[in-house]
Amino acid sequence: MSQNSQTPRGEMVKIMLNGAEVQADPYWSLLEVIQFYGIDIPTLCHDEGLTPYGVCRLCVVEIGSGDKTKLVASCMHPVWEGLEVRTHSNRVIKTRKTILELLIARCPSSKKLQDMAALLELKEVRFEPLNDDCILCGLCVRMCEEQMVAKAIGFAGRGTDRYITTPFDMNSEECRKCGACMYICPVCELRCQGPQADTVLCSGCINTEPVCAPDYGDAMCFMVPCLSCVKGPEDVK
């Protein structure tokens, strides 16, 4: 039995979110709770109109306390009484940057990924770029099946040979050429410099890296305004 199944519908539970006690609906995902309280964390494979998929892992957060913490994908994780959550710990920030490095190395031409790199203050990509045209986020497959009710495309192959295609790699009679798959695709929109850019990272819109994370163990950028970035860590009480 799951932990939230023991809580009657309509009854809220209390969790610790970035050190503050908040109430949460136990039938929501952890990501929904975080977004409800106005905390911005990156998502890529997630869309409110589609079922959670949990493949990109960019919505990773840290749960638990002390030495017993672990990283989880918040879009797939349930909520229960007493759950402790940190959305911007050093460990979380480092993990998100590494994941984004891998995604950009796979598809550096994506404007969506380049914009996310700027928001996360990513300054380098340590992996050889593949210049692929798909990051296997599954958004197009779910959009086609759940919103367009067509199931005209799907995954084929396994591991490094996995790709998205029509049944038997043939023209699908179910496809209505609606363009919904291209609309939701995070790599269809090209970066500002075009597909033949000289650098793997654009860095054209990069933000100033927060000064609070090294001093406090957490970035406070979910606060508006961020007092640490405005005043400096020595002035924040």
What keywords describe this structure?
alpha+beta, two-stranded antiparallel sheet, 24% helix, Ubiquitin-like (UB roll), 237 residues, globular, Alpha-Beta Plaits, disordered C terminus, 7 strands
What's the SSE blueprint?
Blueprint: E1 13-17, E2 20-24, H1 30-36, E3 60-65, E4 68-73, E5 84-86, H2 90-106, H3 111-119, H4 139-147, E6 154-156, E7 163-165, H5 180-184, H6 212-216, H7 227-231
Helix pairs in contact: 2-3
Q: How does this model look, in words?
A:
- The chain has seven helices and seven strands.
- With 237 residues, it is α+β, with helices and mostly antiparallel strands.
- It has two domains: 3-96 and 206-235, Ubiquitin-like (UB roll), CATH 3.10.20; 138-185, Alpha-Beta Plaits (2-Layer Sandwich).
- The strands form two sheets. Strands 2-1-5-3-4 form a five-stranded mixed β-sheet, sandwiched between helices.
- It starts with 12 loop residues before the first strand and ends in a 6-residue tail after the last helix.
- The model is unreliable at 227-237 (pLDDT under 50).
Counting DSSP H or I runs of 4 or more residues, the number of helices is: 7
CATH class category name of the largest domain: Alpha Beta
Corresponding CATH architecture of the largest domain: Roll
Distance between the termini: 43 Å
Measured on Cα atoms, how large is the radius of gyration?
20 Å
**Strands of the largest sheet, in order across it?**
2-1-5-3-4
Kindly report the average pLDDT value: 88
Shape: globular
Main sheet: strands, sense, barrel: 5 strands, mixed
State the low-pLDDT regions, or none.
227-237
Helix and strand content put the structural class at alpha+beta
How helical, in percent, are the residues?
10-25%
* CATH topology grouping of the largest domain: Ubiquitin-like (UB roll)
The secondary-structure element order is EEHEEEHHHEEHHH
Q: How many structural domains?
A: 2
Classify the beta-strand content into a percent band.
5-15%
Number of strands: 7
